[in-house]
Amino acid sequence: MAMFTVALLAAASAIAAPQSTRSERTGSTVETQLVRARELLGQNPDSALVLALEVEKQLDELPSAERKTQALMLLGDAYMETGEMPSALAAFQRAQTVVDEATEKEGASDVLVLAQADIQLKIGVLHFTLRNFDKSMACYTDALRILDGAKDIATAELADRKVRAFNNIAGVYIQRSDYATALPYFQQAVELDRPFNRPRNESSLNNNIGICYMETGRYELANEYFLKALAVRKETGDIRGQAQVLNNLGKNQVYFGHFSTARDHFAQALALGREIGSSASMVISLESLALLYDTLRNYKSALETYREFKALNDSLYSTESRMTIARLEDAFRRDKEKKVFELEAKRKDAENEQRRVWNIALAGALFFLLLTAFLLFNVMRARVRNGRLEQEKLRLESEKLEAEQRTLKESLEYKDRELTANALFLLNKNELIAHIAERLLKAKSAFKEENQRVVQEIVRDLQASQDEHNWQEFETHFTRVHTTFYHDLQERFPALTPNERKLCAFLRLNMSTKDISAITHQTVNSITVARSRLRKKLGIEGEDVQLIDLLQSI
Questions:
Q1: Taking a C-beta distance cutoff of 8 angstroms, is the pair 228, 205 a contact?
Q2: Exposed site from 51, 177, 505, 520, fewest CB < 10 Å?
Q3: 31 vs 510: CA distance, rounded Å
Q4: Does this model's pTM top 0.70?
């Protein structure tokens, strides 16, 4: 069946409504154009781009680095919506330059810190669209690092960016078909966003969680989440979002075998795509319909639909190719003009040098020989100096690289120590809870009869709070530090069970058998047997290869 669509969340580059005072009429005009461009972005990207380019011409009229950054990010959004990915990246990089210069001049304010995170989120979405998932993940992780370093920013602003980062990181895992890793990120984003009631975030997260459940065979649950997402998008008037969810609903109905219902969903999505002129949405709907008609053996409709899909898909590709060729030609033209200018300058310099040498020669052979010797001496000295400088540069770069590697290694070791400390803290907490529960049970008979039931309920609550939540909390922190560990482990050893993967995580942190036994409530002997079985599954024979060393190399 045709592809599904992951709903990404980038920073919104929100533009506040401008003031209408006469003293700010010029600035207000630019602000009005920004607001209008933002409104048009989801309906008419070409018009939004025209307005954003007009604002770019008046960038100096904007009152602050914050507004200039927002204008450049909006320009990048418009370029992305129209398929101009290199231009979009250039706009985001210009926004980053504005933020860096402002930070250097004014210090790292809350607004500038949030802007840095927003830019990384947007560049991450750009790389995701181009299917550069490693670069996309790096940008999202960098955005989280920036946000984790922000302490005094309003909770709602900080949570909104983290929700977007978690959602988009999970989107990358979906593209890698790693739904087990993606789903906890989505769920964490839902919990973080719940207090703020943001419909756009809610609908996107429900759509993406539905994809995870659908792709892991839980179709009923997936259908519930898709319907929740669709309801919110209808309520907010998000036509593009409705088409996106309808495409996913259609695919889910195909898995159910409800082909008629699936066809209706795809047809509705196609109609909405046509309404807003979204070629990307229409391509997905047409491809889905063509495959569905083929499954139903309605070959005539399948062929007609596929032809429309192919024509539209080729049109999109051709448009992108023409734009790319135009950019390459323009770059080539500028390079050629630059080279012609440099050659002309060199030619004139050569003529001037020739005349100068000729005049010197006329003044006397001795002076010419002395001058030549002096020039040769300077050239040789410059070469020697340049050679030394190059060697020094290479040495400094090598030292810098070694320092960076040491820093990265120390950082990872520090985070591993934190994870181990966290696990031991959970262990101590479980032991304390168990101890308290045991003491209460022993003392229960000493309480009055009406209080014994209360004591029993307290013991039951304490015992219920011990295990699963602690493991989920530990696993979330572990995944944040070792983002690819579970994925790489699954790639190399797909036959591992969940409990064996959990054991691998503890061993990755170099935890002892005794500590693992206490945390998992299993005997030391059980853990020893589990380690022996794990060695066999990992293909470790003899004592030459250590289990922990192997896991730490993944």
A1: no
A2: 177
A3: 56
A4: no
